[in-house]
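Consider the tokenized backbone below.
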């Protein structure tokens, strides 16, 4: 009988350790894949630059004077300089991982500092460093294209005294707008979800009687956690989007309607996590407070809630993680348009929806998608460590039990 029990215990231990090992390996493979593919494009420009790039077509001025000058800085070996035009170009890759010809340096006397705009908008244009040149068209000579590289483009320029058109583009491909949108969603969603969720948890655990009605409410709350998020997105499209359109200048999905939809998604998580943290506070605290003459409300808000603070922080962390990672609901509630000018009543994309948009391209931009995923993982890690640090210091400072 003893050997049979040991065999059974060993069997369950093997299953437990095997499941834990499988989970660890799977998570490690995901992190390795995201890190190995995403680290290539990870840089500060990706985070701070706009997504939209603007193309311009320009021509030289009639009174142009060629530079015919040496550079005022040292040009690296991987860049190519034209003395005639006073410009240095280099082969590079943009924030989306595509090969481009980038402007490395322009001499102060270069005629490319003052160009005539052949399109709409400003009358005069000028090249700037980090802009990329798409093509240079000449009269009587083949067009220089970026796909042939910077060296050949400089060689063509050195053989020309004029050109018909120069097409260049400003820096784009950044995710600044999506980061700002994600931060807005975090703040607004928590502002909507936390007061309602914590208040509901306090009522259910501290004030409500344990009867059929409260058990039914808890059952509904637990059921809501299993509803697919895309259904919440349809609800947001049908309810919150028209509501926000009717009271603001929004014309469709917006950050506010997206935050309200996310708040509904998060309410079950916040309520259940907060209620569990209230349950673990010892009843002796309640009895002692009431015995000293404190009212029910004073006991709840001055004794119980402070001791449940670490659990509430956990609920907040889970909520933030869900906000950052949610995409299906936001596709309907906020839209999929990647914007650089962010407003609370306008459409834009969170980081997760930005990944969805990149993977919908033909071909899918896997490198940029994994880079954004790496940023999301980093943000979640920082938030996790920060909340654990705050919770630990709070308990140590105020002597709150975990």
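A designed sequence for it:
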């Amino acid at each position: 009988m003893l050997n049979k029990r040991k065999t059974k215990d060993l069997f369950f231990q093997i299953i437990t350790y095997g499941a834990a090992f499988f989970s660890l390996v799977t998570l490690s493979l995901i992190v390795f894949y995201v890190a190995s593919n995403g680290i290539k494009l990870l840089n500060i420009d990706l985070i701070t630059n706009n997504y939209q790039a603007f193309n311009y077509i320009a021509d030289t001025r009639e009174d142009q004077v060629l530079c015919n000058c040496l550079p005022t800085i040292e040009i690296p070996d991987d860049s190519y300089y034209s003395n005639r035009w006073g410009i240095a170009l280099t082969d590079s890759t943009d924030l989306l991982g595509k090969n481009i010809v980038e402007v490395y340096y322009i001499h102060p006397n270069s005629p490319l500092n003052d160009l005539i705009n052949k399109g709409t908008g400003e009358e005069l244009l000028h090249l700037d460093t980090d802009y990329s040149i798409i093509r240079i068209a000449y009269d009587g000579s083949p067009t220089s294209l970026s796909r042939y590289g910077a060296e050949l483009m400089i060689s063509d320029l050195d053989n020309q005294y004029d050109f018909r058109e120069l097409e260049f583009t400003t820096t784009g491909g950044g995710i600044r707008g999506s980061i700002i949108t994600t931060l807005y969603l975090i703040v607004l969603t928590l502002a909507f979800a936390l007061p309602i969720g914590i208040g509901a948890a306090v009522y259910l655990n501290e004030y409500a009687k344990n009867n059929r009605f409260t058990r039914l409410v808890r059952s509904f709350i637990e059921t809501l956690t299993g509803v697919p998020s895309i259904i919440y997105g349809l609800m947001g499209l049908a309810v919150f989007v028209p509501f926000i359109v009717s009271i603001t200048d929004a014309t469709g999905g917006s950050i506010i309607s997206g935050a309200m939809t996310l708040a509904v998604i998060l309410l079950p998580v916040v309520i259940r996590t907060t209620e569990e943290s209230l349950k673990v506070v010892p009843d002796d605290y309640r009895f002692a407070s009431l015995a000293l003459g404190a009212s029910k409300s004073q006991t709840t808000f001055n004794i119980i809630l402070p001791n449940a603070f670490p659990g509430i922080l956990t609920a907040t962390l889970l909520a933030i993680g869900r906000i950052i990672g949610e995409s299906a609901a936001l596709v309907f509630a906020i839209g999929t348009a990647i914007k650089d000018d962010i407003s609370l009543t306008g459409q834009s994309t969170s980081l997760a929806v930005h990944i969805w948009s990149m993977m919908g391209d033909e071909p899918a931009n896997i490198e940029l998608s994994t880079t954004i995923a790496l940023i999301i993982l980093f943000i979640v890690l920082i938030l996790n460590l920060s909340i654990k640090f705050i919770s630990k210091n709070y308990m140590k400072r105020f002597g709150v039990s975990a």
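Residues 12 and 309 are 35 Å apart (CA to CA).
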